[in-house]
From TrEMBL:
Species, as recorded: Jiangella aurantiaca
Entry-linked Gene3D superfamilies: Tetracycline Repressor, domain 2
HTH tetR-type domain mapped to chain residues: 9-69
Keyword Transcription: yes
Classification via PROSITE patterns: HTH_TETR_2 (PS50977)
Protein's recorded name: TetR/AcrR family transcriptional regulator
Signal peptide: none
GO molecular function, one term: DNA binding
UniProt keyword Transport present: no
DNA-binding stretch(es), residue numbering of this chain: 32-51
Length: 182
């Protein structure tokens, strides 16, 4: 039986999945593009053909992060309609647990400092997620700002290896001199 060839759409999806992992770990480099190509079994020029540039791959990865967070929020809100924001926060922490989502977001944020196209895409993803959160919870601007700040805190704490198993407030408490538990 002849091997089944993947479509460009499937290769693109595979490249985004690999790109998220690679960029989260190594940043957006030419070597990272080669790792993506190696992981999905294609040439590096083919990866460039799929996305047009390293930036194109990063933008597709940012879009995927937004999609995954949005899906997580919707599922969590549906499971706990009485307290959707708490459920959405818990779902977000679970999504971050593997390190890929948060790592990719931190890399994208660093690149966004000097790349307006990436910065605009990051703002767009945040705006969509805030609108979705407002729709799912009825939250106003103050609650949305706190929810966004809590999410950013979780991304940061997870990235630096702070134990979040008891929640972000307990994790912060362990970082305050004299309060850390052995």
């Amino acid at each position: 039986m002849a091997p089944v060839r993947s479509t460009a759409t499937q290769r693109r999806a595979d490249a985004v999945a690999a790109g998220m992992r690679v960029i989260a770990d190594d940043g957006l480099t030419t070597a990272a593009m080669q790792r993506v190509a190696d992981e999905i079994g294609v040439s590096q020029p083919y990866v460039f053909r799929l996305f047009g540039s390293k930036q194109g791959l990063l933008l597709a990865c940012i879009d995927e992060v937004g999609s995954r967070v949005r899906t997580t929020f919707r599922s969590a809100a549906a499971e706990r309609p009485g307290d959707p924001m708490t459920a959405m926060g818990a779902g977000f922490r679970e999504l971050l647990a593997g390190g890929v989502t948060g790592g990719l977001w931190l890399q994208a944020s660093a690149i966004a400092r000097h790349d307006e196209v990436v910065a605009a895409r990051c703002r767009e993803v945040i705006a969509v997620l805030l609108a979705e959160t407002a729709r799912l919870t009825g939250a106003g601007a103050d609650d949305l700002a706190r929810f966004l700040a809590d999410g950013a805190l979780v991304v940061l704490l997870q990235a630096i290896g702070v134990d979040l198993s008891d929640g972000s407030r307990a994790a912060v408490d362990t970082l305050i001199p004299g309060r850390a538990t052995p």
